[in-house]
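INFO batch 0412 | record 1 of 1 | parsing
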Amino acid sequence: MKKIREFLRRKDIIFSGKRYGIDALGAMAQGLFCTLLVGTILNTIGQQFGIGFLNRILVTIGTGEGAMHYTVGGLASAMVGPGIAVAIGAALNAPGLVLFSLIPVGFAANAIGGAGGPLAVYVVAIIACECGKLVSKETKVDILVTPIVTILVGIGLSCLVAAPIGDAAKAVGQAIMWATELQPFLMGILVSALVGIALTLPISSAAICASFGLVGLAGGAAVAGCCAQMVGFAVMSFRENRWGGLVAQGIGTSMLQMPNIVKNPRIWIPPTLASMITGPLATCVFKLEMNGAPVSSGMGTCGFVGQIGVYTGWVNSGKAITAMDWVGLILICFVLPAILSWVFCEILRKWGWIKENDLKLAL
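INFO prediction complete | emitting tokens
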């Protein structure tokens, strides 16, 4: 047993919640962002501003009715499986041959996983990566052994589990969206609060939303919750962090406050309460739906990706965009989170629950 532990340590294989639940999941979100999300944004920009290069068909695969046509954005989005797998491999410190072998593994897992492909890639890529690391540089023909083992394990596992994982993720997402349609007030509160909390935690709300395909009213509630955390922390900590903190948290990430939350969990109360108000307002009053890429549901105001996702959904659905739609989007994503979080924070400051510099960032 001691020799096994030493071997695993030498291979940098660490079985821990942090390694797989934080590092890998965070990397998964980066892989999603650099492929699916950027591709969606480029397509939207090309369509809305009439940019020829972004709208031009660069590659056509297949013939007849089944032909697939790809623009710049389409090509980026098509690489979501390999993008996730390579990002996870990098987070797990995969050697070069293992890392590059994860490209076909990610493609296979995403293709077989269907609507729940991102979650299938996440599971398969972790296992394939660790198996590849086990054999890496253990033979004189490493250049053959390591890629073959990684690819065979990854694609073989994809054939066994990717479809069931994808179906399960899809079913969970559909259940959440169905429950939100059925009980928009209650689910608006739950989805908004929970996804918002996930965004601030050192895990990936974007990856979670993408895995479950969270769109529609549930996606709108998720956007509301993420915006409440980001805008909320940015505004309520302005006196400590000024403009740098406003930008870093407001269009960066509220995760920057995690060290302060550990020291004083009460600072998490204002933005979470705000999310529990804006969530049901989004679902019940403004009927805010996020029908762009599901990953956008978990991005909030990070690079304004959540808002771009909502707008993309409007455009792709052919919706007649009204002034009320814009008012709802601005109120839910920016105005209400700022006002509510600030008010709640000031109350807690008066109670002595939040003290001076409790929200100070080490910028």
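INFO post-check: The chain has a mean pLDDT of 91.
INFO record closed
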